[in-house]
Amino acid sequence: ASNLKIVRMDRTAGCVTGGEEIYLLCDKVQKDDIQIRFYEEEENGGVWEGFGDFSPTDVHRQFGIVFKTPKYKDVNITKPASVFVQLRRKSDLETSEPKPFLYYPE
């Protein structure tokens, strides 16, 4: 299996309420075997995660994905929250290097 890599995203920040469209360029992925995982490692050792919303038809020729951002865990934040986004293969849970993503208050 090839290594997962996020090459570029047209946005690296979004509103806490989610549902915003982002274009992501990646190295070759299989449209039925890929997730876009947003996550934050919490101080108590827990992890919040949310997943980009897209269907296989939103994966373009294995090198691009158009998806909508997930809602952040707390829509009532008063200052921006830094999280990470990565590609994850469903079949073996292999992940790409994470990229930073900023959620800003509504």
Radius of gyration: 13 Å
Straight-line distance between termini: 40 Å
Amount of beta strand? over 45%
How do the helices and strands follow one another from N- to C-terminus? EEEEEEEEE
The gross shape turns out to be globular
Task: Give a short account of the largest sheet.
Answer: 5 strands, mixed
Q: Total strand count, please?
A: 9
Structural class of the helix and strand makeup? Answer: mainly beta
The helicity comes to: under 10%
Structure commentary:
- With 106 residues, the protein is mainly β.
- The chain is 0% helix and 45% strand.
- It is built from no helices and 9 strands.
- The strands form 2 sheets. The protein has a 5-stranded mixed sheet with strand order 2-9-8-4-5, with no helix packed on it. It has a 4-stranded antiparallel sheet with strand order 1-3-7-6, with no helix packed on it.
- The protein is globular and about 40 Å long.
- The N and C termini lie far apart (40 Å).
- The model has no long low-confidence stretch (mean pLDDT 96).
